[in-house]
Specification:
It contains eight helices and twelve strands. By secondary structure, it is α+β, with helices and mostly antiparallel strands. The protein has a single domain, classed as q2cbj1_9rhob like domain (Jelly Rolls, Sandwich), CATH 2.60.120.
Length: 307
């Protein structure tokens, strides 16, 4: 569906001005839209995942760990596919108001792509450099968005999500390869120099707030040097008429599940081209390890090469 077609449908949760702001700016922040009952469930499930990580000594397909992670002092960067590792995370994706808010932005038929639980651990939680999402997992159109749930209050000190307003309108998409053809998962300094980073908006908010940004919106987040950690629960959802044309690097079992509405009879193709990532079929760790250059094989990945 096009933005005009979506806006012509009566919204479920959002106001029309909120929807228009999303399509204009590439993001919106919904403060405290998730109720306390859900937040309590999500906090408990997150704590269970942290406890499980104490038994893990190195990053694997579920847990991406900071280098100094220890059983007595866990430091996670990500839990991949939380929706299939704890039932609360999938229940939240299908039964809460969150996917209804997404339906107001992608159309009434909503499809699941993947989930992740990112952490900014206290006292040095790592930054995420400026990047696009869509070139990690290209689709036939640009409806995919990522919705983040703050399960604790998040201020500037905790390294909140930052977005560049209207960057989803930049044509063509900027590259996330370096000059040697290596995939680095972030924008080059020369391209960042063309952007007015002073206009970045940092999406702080109380627990229960949602951040929603389009797959073409340039975004990142600073380090967390505060005394408080910042978990951010993320779901990437799409219109039902958006279809991926590369391997899903996170390989969730719920991939392409319809969570609102019905399955699409036709694919919608956006004529604007999209950057293709490396061949993820040989494995994928996380944007953290890519950007921090810990995963040498991933950092050397070429389009069409097995990682």
């Amino acid at each position: 569906m096009t933005p005009e077609q979506i806006l012509a449908i009566s919204p479920r949760v959002l106001t029309q001005s909120q929807r228009e702001a999303y399509f204009s700016d590439g993001y919106i922040l919904l403060e405290k839209i998730i109720g306390d009952e859900w937040i309590k469930k999500l906090r408990d499930a997150t704590e269970e995942m942290i406890e499980r990580s104490r038994k893990v000594s190195k990053s694997d397909t579920i847990f991406d760990l900071e280098p100094d992670h220890r059983p007595d002092a866990p430091r996670l960067r990500r839990v991949s596919n939380p929706a299939e590792h704890h039932p609360v995370f999938w229940d939240y994706c299908t039964k809460s108001v969150m996917p209804d808010a997404v339906a107001d932005l992608v159309g009434p038929d909503v499809k699941f792509h993947h989930s992740k639980l990112n952490f900014k651990w206290k006292k040095g939680g790592e930054e995420v450099k400026w990047h696009y999402d869509i070139s990690f997992w290209p689709h036939t159109n640009y409806s995919p968005l990522t919705v983040g749930t703050y399960i604790y209050d998040c201020g500037m000190e905790q390294g909140p999500l930052g977005v560049i307003p209207k960057s989803q309108l930049i044509e063509p998409l900027l590259t996330q390869y370096d000059d040697q053809g290596n995939w680095v998962g972030c924008l080059a300094d020369r391209d960042l120099a063309k952007l007015d980073l002073s206009k970045a908006v940092y999406l702080t908010g109380p627990a229960g707030s949602l951040t929603l940004h389009n797959c073409r919106t340039i975004h990142g987040s600073p380090r967390n040097d505060s005394d408080l950690g910042r978990p951010l629960l993320l779901y990437t959802l799409t219109s039902a008429d958006a279809f991926p044309y590369t391997v899903n690097p996170i390989k969730p079992k719920h991939d392409q599940a319809i969570i609102r509405g019905k399955r699409a009879a036709f694919a919608h193709h956006d004529p604007r081209p999209c950057l293709i990532p490396p061949d993820w079929s040989g494995g994928y760790t996380s944007i953290f390890s890519l950007q921090q250059k810990e995963d040498a094989a991933a950092a050397r990945g070429q389009t069409g090469a097995t990682m």
